[in-house]
Write a structure and sequence with these properties.
With 364 residues, this protein is an alpha/beta fold. The chain folds into two domains: 129 residues, Aspartate Aminotransferase, domain 1 (Alpha-Beta Complex), CATH 3.90.1150.10; 224 residues, Type I PLP-dependent aspartate aminotransferase-like (Major domain) (Aspartate Aminotransferase, domain 2). Helix content is 40%, strand content 15%. The protein has 14 helices and 13 strands. It has a seven-stranded mixed β-sheet, with helices on both faces. Helix 6 links the parallel strand 3 and strand 4. It binds pyridoxal-5'-phosphate. The site of pyridoxal-5'-phosphate has 13 residues, from helix 5.
Length: 364
């Protein structure tokens, strides 16, 4: 057998949320609610569904590899030139592109010890280690500490704002201070992953596009998987300076965005009603969770995403299992050094209510 690098043989793969069908089979139950992957409980944008239906007859053709029309639309919407935009098959693919582009084997990436796992995975496949900066006691990225951990070997820094799985965020003043140190550092690229951007309510939450416009080493990532309800079709959007976008396009496969996603994304962008409805439902769900968790005396982290992380005060895997038996899928976060905590996505209000009453029983 050919020798395979230990970076691969020792790789611990990403664990996605447990699928609904698998849970039904395993526990012999008919009704299962999945609050495990921060998906949109309202389904896809209805305008996107219409666009997909109207374009099914074109599936014999290869998609437009340059995504010309979609890029024009995104360009107008976000006020970036098309040259400043690259699409990925999900923003996780964009993370992969960036690592492949920038890192040589033996280089490193820098992120927080409780951040989205995809960064570590992309780095490991590229034979690179990840340095994890511990979070602050209030579960935030410790941006002041990044400077202490950074070395010229660290070619990429991944910041997640708001962060998953904690739901916490870094404020504008914290980010401004961070960019005083790193903004003009030509030896590193800073990626700001804003998968949950649209759900944020905090007045001092900073939009990463400001930093992209100001510094040539900053990349902003957004996704259509969350608020637009299109996780199954996959579209990540990268904003960065023109030179970097050109290089990322060299790494990208020509047809990475399928034709249905291209038309769905253009339609979803215009679906303001759906966007507003999703945000309203999410905020209502979060406020409901906060009230109920308070009544149960459980610590939770106020969230800027569409999920909440809370402390069960028990072995989280046991509570997770109890919840599965009751037909509710949550997300354990043990691998983030949080052995008693669970993450719960916001669902429809009826689903949220069922989840809370199941949780009460599970914690008895
Ligand atoms: C912080 C963060 N970034 C990126 C993603 C992935 O987004 P996409 O579906 O666009 O790959 C997620 C998905 O859960 C996420 O939580």
């Amino acid at each position: 057998m050919i020798k395979i690098s230990e970076y691969i043989t020792k790789l611990v793969p990403y664990t996605p949320g447990k699928p609904i069908e698998e849970t039904k089979r395993q526990y012999g139950i008919k009704e299962v609610i999945k609050l495990a992957s921060n998906e949109n409980p309202l389904g896809p944008s209805p305008l996107a569904i219409d666009a997909i239906k109207k374009n099914l007859h074109l599936l014999n053709l290869y998609p437009d590899g340059s995504c010309f029309q979609l890029k024009e639309e995104i360009s107008k919407y976000y006020e970036f030139r098309p040259q400043n935009i690259v699409f990925g098959n999900g923003s996780d693919e964009l993370c992969d592109f960036l690592v492949r582009l920038v890192c040589e084997p033996g280089d490193k990436i820098l992120t927080s010890h409780r951040a989205f796992d995809t960064y570590r995975l992309s780095a490991q496949v590229a034979r690179c280690d990840t340095t994890f900066v511990p979070q602050t006691s209030d579960f935030k990225f410790d941006l002041k500490n990044f400077k202490k951990h950074w070395t010229p070997k660290h070619k990429l820094i991944f910041l997640t704002n708001p962060n998953n799985p904690t739901g916490t965020y870094n404020t504008k003043s914290e980010m401004d201070a961070f960019f005083e140190d790193f903004g003009n550092n030509n030896d590193v690229i800073i990626v700001i992953d804003e998968a949950y951007f649209e759900y944020t309510r905090a007045a001092d939450y900073p939009n990463s596009h400001v930093y992209v416009r100001k510094f040539s080493n900053v990349v902003s990532l957004r996704t259509m998987s969350k608020v637009y309800g299109l996780a199954g079709l996959r579209l990540g959007i990268m904003f960065a300076n023109e030179g970097l976008c050109e290089l990322v396009n060299k790494v990208r496969k020509p047809f990475n965005i399928n034709s249905l996603m291209q038309v769905a994304a253009m339609a979803a962008l215009k679906d303001i009603d759906f966007l507003e409805k999703t945000k309203k439902l999410t905020w209502q769900g979060l406020d409901f969770f906060y009230e109920e968790l308070k009544k149960m005396n459980l610590q939770y982290l106020p969230s800027q995403g569409n999920f909440v992380l809370f402390d069960t005060k028990k072995d989280s895997l046991e509570v997770f299992e109890q919840m599965l038996k009751k037909g509710i899928i949550l997300r354990p976060v043990k691998n983030y050094d949080l052995p008693t905590w669970l993450r719960m996505s916001v669902g429809l209000m009826t689903e949220n209510e069922k989840a809370i009453s199941a949780l009460r029983e599970a914690l008895l």
